[in-house]
Specification:
42% of the residues are buried. Helices cover 5% and strands 45% of the residues. The chain has two helices and 21 strands. The radius of gyration is 23 Å and the shape is elongated. The protein has two domains: 3-191 and 342-371, no CATH class; 196-332, S-adenosyl-L-methionine-dependent methyltransferases (Single Sheet). It is mainly beta.
Length: 372
């Protein structure tokens, strides 16, 4: 697919979008058409789950699904309605409640199998807010059977979709009471051999009393042509940024105690450094940070091992060097699977964060579209 030939809807002149919508409406005298996407899930449940009601104490959840235009089952159309159903795979019943929901739609040149981790990069500069208001999530007591599409969202602003303009991103932002959650039915297909990671050096403690520990958020993306996201927790929440680098594990890790940073170990010899990774203040005690590392699309990289480490400027008691290091991890690159994904999901429970995490696999909320 030639991404250079596609233009984001945000860059499309308003008159062209209006023209597309007008032509479709003129051609649709037969009423609204309903299409379930990804294709093939109209009469069978998906094996995965997405979440619209939230189980997090903040009561906040944001989940963006990117649909490959080739798997939608429709072409040029005006989207007037979205509907979802409860996941039949859910182990627990879901209480009913009313959530405040915002839905935005955009088109993008990004592909599900290689998309980024930032909502803004997927939605572009001018996503269309198509709905804002209360949505009733009905109570569900019976699981294991195919559910109807009983969460229906009529769009206050219909969206003119044209596959020539790119893939379809649907961003659902939810604020709800603290509940047990309301999982949406979702596609979940896994064809890649996931990568792996393991700790090779321990962290030291910063002035807030926390060690910085890291992990790979989605080992499924740690494959040739994928983008590895490393996540570190326990940074100083007031710090504007931290530093991370990738390289190879040092054959002789250096203990920094002798130069004024007790308990800190320099364990990764750097190839590339990201010097200013923004910190998200998760609480009043510590922060989070994320970094993305693209892997070249070379199959021979399967099985290659590299390493990652972080540091921040800080002076905990006894530390005269003014530097605190995270743990170090080794990351093993897996093997690619299907070259073309139908869907991919980006999710966060941190309100105000532009960075999300991607559940593994070709996964996305099964959605019924009301079209004209």
């Amino acid at each position: 697919m030639n991404g250079e030939s596609m233009t984001r809807s945000a860059d499309t002149p308003a008159f062209l979008r209006a023209l597309v919508g007008g032509l479709v409406l003129l051609a649709s005298a037969q009423g609204q058409q309903q299409v379930v996407a990804p294709s093939g899930f109209g009469y069978r449940a998906g094996p995965g789950e997405g979440r619209i009601g939230t189980a997090f104490s903040s009561g906040y959840q944001r989940e963006l699904t990117l649909f490959d235009r080739q798997h939608l089952g429709f072409g040029v159309a005006v989207i007037e309605e979205l509907a979802w159903r409860h996941a039949s795979t859910a182990a627990q019943p879901s209480p009913g409640h009313t959530a405040q929901v915002v839905v935005r739609i955009a088109q993008t040149a990004q592909e599900p199998e290689s998309m980024g981790y930032r909502f803004s990069s997927l939605l572009g500069a001018s996503p269309v807010e198509v709905f804002r208001g209360p949505v009733v999530l009905p109570p569900v007591t019976a699981n294991g059977t195919l559910r109807p599409f009983d969460v229906v969202v009529p769009l206050s602003t219909p969206f003119a979709f044209d596959p020539a303009l790119g893939n379809l991103a649907i961003d659902v932002e939810v604020q709800s009471p603290f509940q047990a959650g309301w999982p949406r039915d979702a596609r979940d297909v896994r064809t890649r051999t996931a990568g792996a990671f393991r700790a090779i050096a321990q962290p030291c403690v910063n002035s807030a009393g926390f060690p910085m520990t890291q992990r790979v958020t989605a080992t499924d993306n740690c494959v040739p042509g994928g983008v590895v996201q490393t996540f570190v927790a326990g940074t100083i929440y007031t710090a504007p940024s931290v530093v991370t680098w990738v390289g190879v594990a040092s054959p002789s890790p250096f203990d920094l105690t002798s130069i004024g940073a007790p308990g800190c170990t320099f364990a990764v010899e750097p190839w590339a450094v990201l010097p200013a990774v923004p910190v998200f203040p998760a609480t009043t005690s510590f922060g989070y940070a994320w970094a993305e590392h693209p892997i070249p699309n070379l199959p021979q990289l399967s099985g290659v091992v590299f390493a990652s480490q972080w540091f921040e400027l800080d002076t905990p008691p006894g530390n005269t060097l003014g530097v605190v290091l995270s743990d170090a991890i080794e990351i093993t690159i897996g093997a690619p699977g299907a070259a073309d994904y139908a869907t991919k999901t980006l999710v966060t429970s941190l309100q105000g964060s532009d960075v999300g995490q991607q559940p593994p696999g070709d996964r996305g909320a099964i959605t019924r579209f009301g079209l004209r």
